[in-house]
Specification:
Layout lengths: L6 E11 L2 H69 L5 H36 L25 H19 L7 E11 L4 E10 L10 H65 L5 H35 L5
Antiparallel strand pairs: 1-2, 2-3
């Protein structure tokens, strides 16, 4: 105030202070951030577990089929040699020998295909894990089918739910109920030839959060997020449950097939035993005996592969349930 010879100096400091609602929202967001980080790690582990499970079980099945293809080739080579000797003695036609050789070529093609699959799955396993050799023990604990699938424990569902909780807390943190308090400190100095005075002021601005006033945009955002979360969760649940149910049905079918194959194996063993006795009395030829032996070998292969598929099905059920390796 220059006419009166008074110099006035003023300084103010404004400090926002979090209210209880905002502090609770921030604490919840911090906790949710940690949970989301852990669940994201579990989801990543589950993803790579699926690739590893696919590789090791497909490799084991292709390897088993290849081994049986080699055994079948040995029987066909023995049969080919017999027909070659018979042809040289004019005891059979070249047509029969050519049929045997065609079967032998087909068996070699099958073995080559299985070896290619084995190499393919070995490469996938090496690419994922960095390891050069496949694990010897790949069976996993048997999963319980009682009660069906527990969706709430699946990392994908947990990640979706935690993300929705995070969105809720973010909306709450930005709502009027979470608006900060404003604390203002003011200092004023009045200086004149007659006197000098220091004045101090304190003011607090408190939002009327108890009125619970929310803007229409906040309400609309809340409803939109809620609808999108519900739809995404329903879609994910449908995919997971459909996958689970399909694997459960496949497992039951594999178990039924195993029982039938074991019954077929028992019959094949009895047939081979009968043929061996008939062959000793020259009632059947060696060719018939070898054919029945190859049929028994095919049944043995089906049993071995089906058993591997049962273990593979269990591993895939664990994968569908969200259980990583």
């Amino acid at each position: 105030d220059k006419p009166n010879g008074v110099d006035e100096t003023e300084a103010s400091l404004r400090l926002p202070i979090k209210g209880g609602q905002r502090r609770r929202a921030d604490n919840a967001l911090q906790e949710l951030s940690g949970q989301l980080h852990r669940v994201a790690g579990q989801q990543r582990a589950l993803y790579f577990s699926g690739l590893i499970r696919e590789a090791v079980w497909s490799h084991r099945i292709a390897e088993a089929r290849g081994q049986f293809a080699v055994r079948k080739q040995r029987l066909l080579q023995e049969l080919e040699e017999r027909y070659r000797v018979l042809l040289a003695a004019n005891a059979t036609s070249e047509y029969s020998l050519l049929l045997i050789r065609k079967e032998l070529v087909n068996a070699r093609i099958s073995e080559s295909d299985y070896q290619r699959e084995v190499r393919q799955w070995q490469q996938q396993y090496r690419r994922i894990t960095g390891l050069g050799s496949m694990p010897a023990a790949i069976e996993e604990p048997l999963i319980s089918l009682a009660g069906g699938m527990v969706l709430q424990q699946h990392p994908g569902v947990r990640q979706l739910d935690l993300g929705w909780q995070q969105e809720q807390q973010l909306l709450l943190a930005n709502s009027s109920r979470s608006r900060s308090w404003d604390l203002s400190l003011t200092a004023k100095n009045l200086d004149s030839p007659v006197f000098e005075e220091n004045q101090y002021g304190l003011s607090v601005e408190i939002p009327l959060s108890f009125l619970d006033l929310e803007s229409q945009s906040n309400n609309s955002a809340w409803q939109d997020l809620n609808q999108r979360h519900a739809m995404a969760r329903d879609e994910l649940a449908e995919q997971l449950v459909a996958r689970w149910d399909g694997l459960v049905n496949e497992g039951r079918s594999l178990q039924e097939n195993q029982e039938l194959l074991l019954a077929s194996k028992a019959l094949s063993e009895r047939i081979v035993g009968q043929i061996e006795r008939l062959q000793a009395s020259n009632e059947v030829t060696k060719d018939v005996a070898m054919r029945r032996t190859m049929e028994a070998l095919d049944t043995e292969m089906q049993i071995a592969v089906n058993k591997l598929k049962i273990h593979q099905n269990n591993a895939m059920l664990r994968q569908a349930a969200g259980i990583p390796l």
